[in-house]
Each structure stands twice: as C-alpha cells, then as structure tokens.
Specification:
Blueprint lengths: L1 E9 L2 E7 L10 H8 L9 E6 L6 E7 L9 H13 L6 E6 L2 E7 L4 E5 L6 E4 L2 E5 L3 E6 L8 H9 L10 E8 L2 E8 L4 E3 L3 H10 L7 E8 L2 E11 L2 E10 L1 E9 L1
Length: 259
C-alpha cells in the first residue's frame, strides 16, 4: 500500500496524518499503524490520525495511539487535525468535528494558534495528593514541587501499571505551580513513555489547578514542547464547562511511504 502522509506537531506532540475522506486507508491494520508511528523504522509519531468524512460535521477524527490501537480523545491531535483540515481545503474560521468522545468545535486564530473546545467535566476524584478525571481521556494528576527533575518515565509508569489502572490504563500528569500558570509533564498510555505535551493532560492539570471560586479562568501552561493555554469556567466545586485548549499546530513535512 502506498500512503501519502503528513506530519504535524503541537508543542512537540507529533502525529502522522492522512486524508481518508475517500476511504483509501480504511483497511489499515493496527500493526501497520504501529509501524508508521515507529521512530526508528517508520515515520515516527505519538499517534496517527485520519481525516474522515461525516454527514453532520466538517469531518470525523479517527485517532490511533502509537501502539497501533484505537485511542481516546487527543487534544493536541484535535488541534493538529483541525489545522490539517484547512490545508485540505475545508473552509471557515470555525470548524466542527466528531471524535471518540463526541462533538467538538475549533477556531483558527491569526497568531497561528488553534483553539479547541473540549467536553465539559462534571466529575473529579480528589484523593490525598492527587486528582483523577476524564477530559476525553483519563488522567491521573499529581502536584509536585520540582517537575523538571522528576523521572517521569519511572514514576508515571508505576502509576499507569499499578493495581487500579493496569488493565485499562491512565495517563499520568505531574504538575508544578508557577508564578504565572503551571508546568506539566506527562506519561502517556499508548505511547508508554513521556511525551513532550499532552492536550487532554494539560487540560486536566489546568482544571485541577483552579481556585475555589466559581469563575472564568485562563491558565498559561508550559510543557517540554512549548506553551499552551487553557480557558474554562468553573461553575461548582468539581464542575467545569466552556473549556478551550489553545496553542500552535504546525505542519512539519509530508511524504510517501510504501508498507
């Protein structure tokens, strides 16, 4: 099979993307997806996405983790696929699409950022020194004092494969409060390693960093791959809506590969 692919990244969270509106890649196997995401033998990426047609939305987002298995919602992936949809000729300053966790809308900004509306969150488990919530994907959020010195792979893997999460898995986010915003590092399931950035993860971290007051928040987020911003309204102790993940989404290169 000859594949024409595009490589996009959003704050270092990188993806192999294909235009599948004609169904040309419907038969791609999980093993082939895994190969394409392999950084030594394939194109390399934290995940793979297909731009699919949908009768009720501008497009459908089909997402696979780097291990080749279908994945849950990916926030940076959604922003990158939105940028790709514009390159593929889908018009408008605002688009709507359907993903594994439901409908989304996204807006293009003049500074090159893509703003993606995330699903509302109305449940957060608050434990001793951690939070657990779902922002389209499940996230275990742990506040730390010095995130840059942390062994994210070892610490994150220990939580992801503990007795509670081993079967289904969870993403693990380590969060440090800064003078203005937060710094987030993420161990991502499906990649089974630290990624430079994770959109649903920084969203989860931003929500849990909010104060007690019910109001609209804007949280600057620093990741290894660069800056993001999360805006949201807190309407109750553990209830959040109008959540927007904002940041850059950039084409790296395109090419062809035979598999």
């Amino acid at each position: 099979m000859n594949i024409h692919f595009y490589k996009y990244q959003g704050t270092g969270n990188d993806f192999v993307i294909m235009d599948n509106r004609d169904g040309a890649y419907d038969q791609l196997t999980n093993e082939q997806v895994h190969f394409l995401c392999d950084r030594r033998f394939g194109v390399g990426g934290d995940g793979l996405m297909m731009l699919n047609k949908h009768p009720e939305y501008d497009f459908e987002m089909k997402y696979y983790n780097a291990d080749g298995k279908p994945g849950s919602m990916c926030g940076n992936g959604g922003r990158c696929l939105t940028a790709f949809s514009r390159k593929m000729g889908i018009p408008g300053e605002k688009v709507t699409f359907i993903a594994s966790d439901g409908p989304h809308e996204a807006i293009f900004r003049e500074n090159g950022w893509v703003e993606l509306k995330m699903q509302d969150v109305d449940w957060v488990e608050a434990g001793p020194l951690y939070f657990y919530l779902n922002t389209g994907s499940p996230h275990f959020v742990k506040p730390v004092d010095d995130v840059q010195s942390l062994d994210v792979y070892t610490e994150g893997r220990g939580i992801r494969y503990n007795e509670r999460f081993a079967e289904v898995g969870t993403n693990v986010n380590f969060v440090q409060q800064l003078e203005n915003g937060i710094f987030v590092r993420t161990y991502e399931r499906g990649v089974e390693d630290e990624t430079y950035s994770c959109g649903t993860g920084v969203t989860a971290a931003a929500l849990t960093s909010a104060g007690q007051e019910a109001k609209t928040y804007t949280v600057p987020v620093q990741t290894l791959g660069g800056p993001l911003e999360v805006r949201f309204t807190k309407s109750g102790e553990r209830s959040f809506h109008d959540i927007w993940l904002c940041g850059p989404a950039t084409l790296v290169f395109e090419g062809n590969i035979n598999i």
